Amino acid sequence: MAPAKRHRRRESDTPNSRDMEKANMARPRLTYFDAPVSRGEECRLALHLAGIDFEDNRISQAAWPALKEQTPYGTLPVLELPGHPPLAQTNPILLLIGRRHGLHPNDDFEAAQHEAMMQHVEELRHNVSPTIRMAGAEKKAAREALVAGFLAAWARAAERNLASAAPFFAGANIHVVDLKLHMAVRWFLGGKVDHIPATIFAAFPKLMGVHDAVRDDSRVKAWYAK
Ligand SMILES: N[C@@H](CCC(=O)N[C@@H](CS)C(=O)NCC(=O)O)C(=O)O
Predict the structure, then answer these.
(1) Which residues form ligand 1's pocket by a CB distance below 6 Å?
(2) What are phi and psi for residue 55, nearest 5 degrees?
(3) What share of the chain is helix, strand, coil (3-state, %, to 5)?
(4) In 10 A of CB 211, how many CB atoms?
(5) Which mutation among 38, 71, 75 tests ligand 1's pocket best, with the greatest number of atoms within 8 A of CB?
(6) Nearest protein Cα to ligand 1, atom 13
(7) Considering the entire predicted model, what is its pTM?
(8) Residue 174 burial (C-beta neighbours within 10 Å; 0-12, 13-18, 19+)
(9) Which ligand 1 atom is the nearest neighbour of the CA of 33?
(10) Residue with the nearest Cα to atom 4 of ligand 1?
């Protein structure tokens, strides 16, 4: 099948285990679910900002069980680079792209500060994601508790660590950490996460500012204009 725009593969093209083991394709391939969200989308954005011609391999939930055990950690995203075994875990994927393409600082202390914030975003996901599998009253109670407790504290800590941000985490230049912060805010901004207000982060201007600056970046706009 000829690749569609952004080199998307369809479910029928899902890589088999031999593909994943060998990673001997001609160009990088990112595998994630077929949705513009979360860990997969921030890796897609990082690859796009890095100017890498990559295969955007999107799989359906139905195709996932057959692939899960073939991935390094049973999770997506997975990045395959020609000549290397598949690489999983979102932050290491982002750091590899970021270090190679000027989207992560060279200074080791500065880099560690970025990585701390990246981990902060992962902790947000680890706390909120379990509620996705809940239903009814249990989901409502769990999310209301998150809004009052964890999410409020999470946003305060994010804002504290964005003290000198303008417009991005490290000032004028976009880095992979900004892509993660953008995706974290965007998760709730559309108001589609039941029991978590769309305005959950509205009182945190620096956090919102990073979200907006990434949204308004010309390369990010170009990605969504495709
Ligand atoms: N620590 C992993 C977590 C990855 C993760 O949980 N990915 C989700 C999608 S965002 C997933 O693979 N879900 C399917 C499953 O766990 O079976 C990372 O940072 O990449």
Answers:
(1) 38-39, 68, 75-76, 89-90, 122
(2) -90, 120
(3) 55, 10, 35
(4) 21
(5) 75
(6) 75
(7) 0.91
(8) buried
(9) 9
(10) 75
Coil, strand or helix: which one is 93? helix
- Give the model's pLDDT for residue 211: 98
Centre of ligand 1 from the C-alpha of residue 77, in Å: 7
Atom of ligand 1 nearest to the CA of 88: 20
Token digits of residue 70: 């073939």
- Looking at residue 16, its amino acid is N
The protein residue whose alpha carbon is closest to atom 17 in ligand 1 is 75
Query: What are 57's strand-pairing partners?
Result: 9, 31
Instruction: Specify the pLDDT at position 164.
Output: 73
Closest CA to ligand 1's atom 10: 39
Give strand ranges (E) for the chain: 29-33, 55-59, 78-80, 87-88
Strand order in the sheet with 78-80: 55-59, 29-33, 78-80, 87-88
**Tens-of-pLDDT digits for all 226 residues of the chain?**
223 334 444 444 444 444 555 555 799 999 999 999 999 999 999 999 999 999 999 999 999 999 999 999 999 999 999 999 999 999 999 999 999 999 999 999 999 999 999 999 999 999 999 999 999 999 999 999 999 999 999 999 999 999 776 899 999 999 999 999 999 999 999 999 999 999 999 999 999 999 999 999 999 999 999 8
